[in-house]
Amino acid sequence: MKKRVIVFVLIVACLRLTSCSQTENSANDWAKRAGAKYDIKDYQGAVIDYTKAISLKPDFADAYHGRGNAKSDLGDYQGAIADHTKAIELKPDYADAYINSGNAKSNLGDYQGAIADFTKAIGLKPDLADAYFNRGNEKSHLQDYQGAIADYTTAMGLEPGKAIQYYNRGSAKSQLKDLQGAIADFTKAIELKPDFTEAYYNRGVEKMMLQDALGAITDFTKAIGLNPDLAVAYINRGQSHLHLDQKDKALADFMRAIELGQRIPQEILDACK
């Protein structure tokens, strides 16, 4: 009888182990399916499948993280934060979860909360370029432009060659009236991304501030070539033409801006006569 009891207990134990293994495999399968749906932008489907994975494996940190990302893409930022927070509870060194929690907080306008999350991610992974870049964006939102420049510069050192890093740093320098520094960064952004409309436009604005009307016109013209409906580029190019006493060209630009729905003060139109 003892042998039979022992055998029975062993059989039950094996069945339990097999059952647990099957449950985990099933949870992983649901998570993989969710990831595939996420990749094709079926975010609602991804949420459903991640939820199924979590129901089978309640301590599945990656599934909470994945579901949080899908919720963010659906605009459910509070839900995303809750999921990323749970992922961090289960896996305290989850740097990516801190980053995505910070992104969700940023979308809700909680810039300080976002900075705290990005700072935590940096503490866990000091070579995480995205965390520095995102923290720089939040600092810019809070008008800490020096702090933003420092973070963008660190991100560049960790992951060089990204046009958006130079563009955002140039924008921060512009806010600090470092016009030449801004121009240098916008120029580098354009070298890395030749179709970067906003970089041409903003470089043109900096050149206007430096009284370089010809240079500004060149940049605004390039921006317009990339985006023919960019009304502000017509307005500023028109102002630059006026600075050079090119009244006909200025008027043509102002009229095009009006066609695009912009209002031009009468005194500016009168200056073109």
What does this protein look like?
With about 270 residues, this protein is mainly alpha-helical. It has a domain at about 170-273: Serine Threonine Protein Phosphatase 5, Tetratricopeptide repeat. The chain is built from 15 helices and no strands. Helix 11 packs antiparallel against helix 12. It is elongated and about 80 Å long. The chain starts with a helix and ends with a helix. The model is unreliable at about 1-20 (pLDDT under 50).
Spell out the blueprint of helices and strands.
Layout: H1 2-39, H2 43-56, H3 61-73, H4 77-90, H5 95-107, H6 111-124, H7 129-141, H8 145-158, H9 163-175, H10 179-192, H11 197-209, H12 213-226, H13 231-243, H14 247-259, H15 266-270
Helix pairs in contact: 1-2, 1-3, 2-3, 3-4, 3-5, 4-5, 5-6, 5-7, 6-7, 7-8, 8-9, 9-10, 10-11, 11-12, 12-13, 13-14
Question: Which keywords apply here?
Answer:
mainly alpha, 273 residues, Serine Threonine Protein Phosphatase 5, Tetratricopeptide repeat, single chain, elongated
Beta-strand level of the residues, as a percent range? Answer: under 5%
Describe the main β-sheet briefly.
none
N-to-C order of helices and strands = HHHHHHHHHHHHHHH
Return residue spans where pLDDT drops below 50 for at least 5 consecutive residues: 1-20
Multimeric organization: single chain
By CATH, the architecture of the domain at 170-273 is named Alpha Horseshoe
User: Would you give the CATH topology of the domain at 170-273?
Assistant: Serine Threonine Protein Phosphatase 5, Tetratricopeptide repeat
3D shape: elongated
**Fourth-level CATH superfamily of the domain at 170-273:** Tetratricopeptide repeat domain
